[in-house]
Amino acid sequence: MKLPAYNQNGEKIEEIELPDEIFNVRFNPDLVHQVVVSQMANRRKVIAHTKDRGEVSGGGRKPWRQKGLGRARHGSIRSPLWRHGGITFGPRKEKVFKKKIPKKMKRKALFMVLSEKARNNCLILLDNLNIKEPKTKLAREVLKKLSINNQSALVALPSVDKNLILSLNNLPNVQSIQAKDITALDLLSFKYLIMLKDSIKVIKETFL
Questions:
Q1: Rounded distance, CA 108 to CA 100, Å?
Q2: What are the Cα distances from residue 21, in Å, to 94, 137, 185, 186?
Q3: What is the predicted pLDDT for the residue at 60?
Q4: CB proximity list for 42: less than 8 A, separation 6 or greater
Q5: 1-4: long-range contacts at Cβ-Cβ below 8 A with a sequence spacing of 24 or more?
Q6: What stretches in the chain show pLDDT beneath 50?
């Protein structure tokens, strides 16, 4: 598969032959769904946590004697039956949501989504991308020249470029990532994938 490569002024400069083993893979929606669900689960942060009767304060003694008062018997004010008592069956931070997926499946799903981006004209190749100082305005001008206006885009970088990362940080719906860390979930979270030529080499070396 061949795709045109542009410079950061939006001018077409050449055509690049993409490796078929990465960008020409038949799409399997069931496999991609399974991998994406596992990746979402692995990124999930467990925040909700309720206290059970052993964690709430108070209740060191029996609230009243067992017999003789005509009231129901109780052993502790920390009982879930009491106001401010422990919570029964509430969410706990010990719950584990992580799912294991074989590396081959994750790699295959990544290649499938990359192939779909290329087929649907949502993959934009850049010869190079240089921003001399960390300014959001400069990054916005580059995206405008690439005809990406108010559209979500993921920029795959071959290596860490602080000026470029800082310039893209404040743009809404735009995010940068190193090519070696890219996942199927990252790709599906954005409409466009902007990839530098060197990023293709990094993906090939990392995942093949």
A1: 15
A2: 41, 37, 20, 20
A3: 85
A4: 97, 98, 99
A5: 1/118, 3/118, 3/123, 3/125, 4/125
A6: none
Token output for 22: 């990465």
Half-sphere exposure of 179 (CA within 13 A, CB side): 22
CA 198 – CA 201 distance, rounded (Å):
5
- Angstrom distance (rounded) from CA 180 to CA 183: 9
Adjacent-strand bridge partners of 14: 5
Residue 5: phi, psi to the nearest 5?
-110, 140
What's residue 132's pLDDT?
86
Q: What's 2-44+101-207's CATH class? A: alpha beta
What are the residue boundaries of the structural domains of the chain, listed by start?
Answer: 2-44+101-207, 46-96
The amino acid occupying position 72 is A
Q: How many residues are there in the chain?
A: 208
